[in-house]
Amino acid sequence: MKFTEVVISTKANNTGEKYHRILEAAVSVFAKKGFHQSTISQIAGEAGVADGTIYLYFKNKDDILVQFFTYKTKQVFAGFREAVKKADNARDKLRNLVHRHLEEFQKDRKMAIVYDALTHQNMELVEVNIRGMSKMYTDIVSDIIERGQEEGVMRRDLYIGLVKRFILGAVESAISNWLRSKREYDLTSMTDPLIDLFIRGIGNPDA
Amino acid sequence: MKFTEVVISTKANNTGEKYHRILEAAVSVFAKKGFHQSTISQIAGEAGVADGTIYLYFKNKDDILVQFFTYKTKQVFAGFREAVKKADNARDKLRNLVHRHLEEFQKDRKMAIVYDALTHQNMELVEVNIRGMSKMYTDIVSDIIERGQEEGVMRRDLYIGLVKRFILGAVESAISNWLRSKREYDLTSMTDPLIDLFIRGIGNPDA
Amino acid sequence: MKFTEVVISTKANNTGEKYHRILEAAVSVFAKKGFHQSTISQIAGEAGVADGTIYLYFKNKDDILVQFFTYKTKQVFAGFREAVKKADNARDKLRNLVHRHLEEFQKDRKMAIVYDALTHQNMELVEVNIRGMSKMYTDIVSDIIERGQEEGVMRRDLYIGLVKRFILGAVESAISNWLRSKREYDLTSMTDPLIDLFIRGIGNPDA
Amino acid sequence: MKFTEVVISTKANNTGEKYHRILEAAVSVFAKKGFHQSTISQIAGEAGVADGTIYLYFKNKDDILVQFFTYKTKQVFAGFREAVKKADNARDKLRNLVHRHLEEFQKDRKMAIVYDALTHQNMELVEVNIRGMSKMYTDIVSDIIERGQEEGVMRRDLYIGLVKRFILGAVESAISNWLRSKREYDLTSMTDPLIDLFIRGIGNPDA
DNA sequence: AATGAATGAGCGTTCATTCAT
DNA sequence: GATGAATGAACGCTCATTCAT
Predict the structure, then answer these.
(1) Band of the pLDDT at B6, cuts 50, 70, 90?
(2) Residues with Cβ < 8 Å from C128, sequence gap 6 or more?
(3) Taking the domains of chain C in order of start, what are their residue ranges?
(4) Which residue in chain A has the smallest CA separation from B130?
(5) Per-residue pLDDT tens digits for C111-156
């Protein structure tokens, strides 16, 4: 595919290349400094282009962030459905979801940092995107929980509205801790411990 | 130091008053606009003082944020120990902790917003404070878990390093959702549902 | 008056002084380069203040122009009524108007240049002001013509709507020529020749 | 030169076509936004060529304006002589001049707007052109006046240096008013009322 | 202590011009 | 000839900080 593009149109390829180079550079700078503290000059420098070039690909600074959400992040989240589909029971679906979540964010640390920061700021710019993605995620979790209840492996007396946000929150919190940790460790290794906490809780059932 | 001044003179007392007025004004503005988008002028305006006056009480803009963490937030967190002490078993201690946590953040919404945003940004400025407070919190949780294990009400096979962060993350996530919710609801009412999820998980023990 | 202000309030005086210094500087730069080609830096430099200082007295660059019209130019035009009042017949009133017009514009050459340029550009910014001032002027002329007709010194068969604009145009044209002339001459000396052309025209009445 | 190219080759002919397309586009954009507010991109867009193409026909942005004066406007003004020639007495010559002037500017409104704006700005770029055209025009008027004096239809005691500029100014002023008028009316219909004012003035000769 | 006018570095953005294709 | 992506200087404007009063 990439190769075909090169053959067909050098221009289109270059355009795409530069667009992505700027986007990656921007995410990199945003991750380091935060969106508002990042300057166009820094992004241009990181991307190896002139400041003005940015404006050939993005309407303005805000637009870079919006594009980041619209294309990059949204794509990652959309992939979660796929992971869930691959399992045939609720518990494994939940496990796959969490695993894929941790995996994707571990794979792209900078995206993880930017995403983490933005979801905790009131930025109208991306609020709609964030709410949309959050809804997509919690809808998936809701479906899994309901299925789990049908399968008999999950409690019937759950307040699903809380549970779905609880699970997203716990996973995001795990990512957040990983990002801030000074030790380097495999984020995906948290999958099973997390699932275990979700399912069994911390209480001693024999008590 | 500030306290001493209050004792010594009326002038110092006024000073203390103005200091707090500025701090409250700052938190208010930070909550509305975010730290970097807030201006000294806005804070001064909200506090009813001149721009220059701010610099009599704070070294610079950053310092306002540091003071916010050093005094205001730290104080809130310190109160958590007290709540925990009032219960005499692990489960109630955990319940009291979570309840107090939600209560304090509900009581001071602006602080909650600022705290939420800052803990998810890489600001060297407050990193130490955040780590300190997080440690204080998770230490409390660790103690509770260990006690619960001794009491036999909590599982022995827990990865405490994860659990303590898991609980903090889940509570903070509940706060975060409450802050972003369009509906108004009583945040403390989330206490028992949360504790229930912590202790029993979502799994059906009969399965 | 000036002195009193100094005694009462140095601050107010300084403020007014700086405001006017900037306005004068701006008009000076506008006259030399034209509004759009003038930069804030140039104006600030000419006024002997920092760039940022401009924004303590004017909302933005556009506002400088608007203020110029609202206060400076409007004031000059308002003075025209006064000159007209001092004569007791139509011809002298017209003479006084034209004389005062030429006199004021000669007195403030820079204002004249800026006014001349702006009235021939489509700038929404000052369009209302320009139309307003033009109307004020042509209303005065209309009154004079009508009075002249009553006095019997002016023709009855005049298309006043044209005449009033004709007179303003001819005077402004005289100013414009004076501004562009390489020779220096007394603009007010054009008064009587102009009035003569207005009244008698170029035709030979004996023909 | 350009004309020669047209004769020599089809390619050159295309070139000439594109050259004029760009010039027309430029005038159109200048009329709408003013010279300094117009961008090369806008002109290129209006002309249906690439930005870079402009530089194959014009040295730079300023050059477009210079060419506008050198070819387009100068051509219009040159035509005035022709109109004057068609009358055989001073009064009709003046009438024909004014009529043609109004007619040409009414015919090409965009040119009129650009010409009007530029003649009232201090642009070294076109100053020479403007002075040249103004001289050409006032020379024609001077000739007419002198002839009128010989014919005995015009006063002998005229300050011709003023009269010639007076007439040009009044006509340009009529055009300027027409351009700014919200009502649409036939500009050439102003010819006779203007001539009447020129010849007879506003005064009552019987007074 | 308190003020707020003044500063000027630094930002996001535009656009005339160039040049590889 | 024709293109339009790329450039980077230059602009208007903001705002943390200082300091004379």
Answers:
(1) very low
(2) none
(3) 1-58, 62-207
(4) A180
(5) 999 999 999 998 999 999 999 999 999 999 999 999 999 999 999 9
pTM of the model: 0.89
Tokens coding C117: 């340029």
Average confidence (pLDDT) over A157-182: 96
Look at B173 and A174 and tell me if their CB atoms are within 8 Å.
no
Output the CA torsion B153→B158→B162→B163 (10° steps).
Answer: -10
User: Which has the closest alpha carbon to A112: A194, A178, A182?
Assistant: A178
Residue closest to B58 by CA, chosen among B25, B9, B31:
B25
Instruction: Tell me if there are at least 3 CB pairs under 8 Å linking chains D and C.
Output: yes
Using the predicted structure, report yes or no on whether residue C25 has a pLDDT greater than 90: yes
pLDDT tens for D154-192 read 999 999 999 999 999 999 999 999 999 999 999 999 999
How many percent of chain D have pLDDT more than 70? 93
d(CA B108, CA D80): 81
Confidence band, pLDDT 50/70/90 cuts, at residue C204: confident
Say whether residue B7 is in contact with chain A using an 8 A CB cutoff.
no
Instruction: Check for a shared fold between B1-58 and B63-200.
Output: no
Residue B111 reports pLDDT greater than 70: yes
The pLDDT value recorded for residue B71 is 85
Where does D11-57 show beta strands of DSSP type E?
A: none
Q: Within 10 Å of residue B11's Cβ, how many Cβ atoms?
A: 9
Instruction: Measure the CA dihedral D42/D48/D51/D54, to 10°.
Output: -100
Domain C1-58 has CATH 2.60.40.640: no
Rounded CA gap, C43 and C48, in Å? Answer: 8
Backbone angles phi, psi at B117, to 5 degrees: -65, -45
3-state helix, strand, coil in chain A (%, to 5): 80, 0, 20
- CA–CA gap between residue D112 and residue D73 (Å, rounded): 9
Fold category of A62-207 in CATH: Tetracycline Repressor; domain 2 (1.10.357)
Q: What is the 3-state secondary structure (H, E, C) of B53-97?
A: HHHHHCCCHHHHHHHHHHHHHHHHHHHHHHHHHCCCCHHHHHHHH
Q: Dump pLDDT digits (tens) for A91-126.
A: 999 999 999 999 999 999 999 999 999 999 989 999
Interface test mutation site (partner A, options B113, B202, B204, max chain A beta carbons within 10 A) = B202
Task: Find the length of chain D.
Answer: 207
Which one of 1.10.357.10, 3.20.190.10, 3.90.550.10, 3.30.1340.30 gives the CATH number of domain B63-200? 1.10.357.10
Q: Which residues of B touch A200 (CB under 8 A)?
A: 155, 201, 203
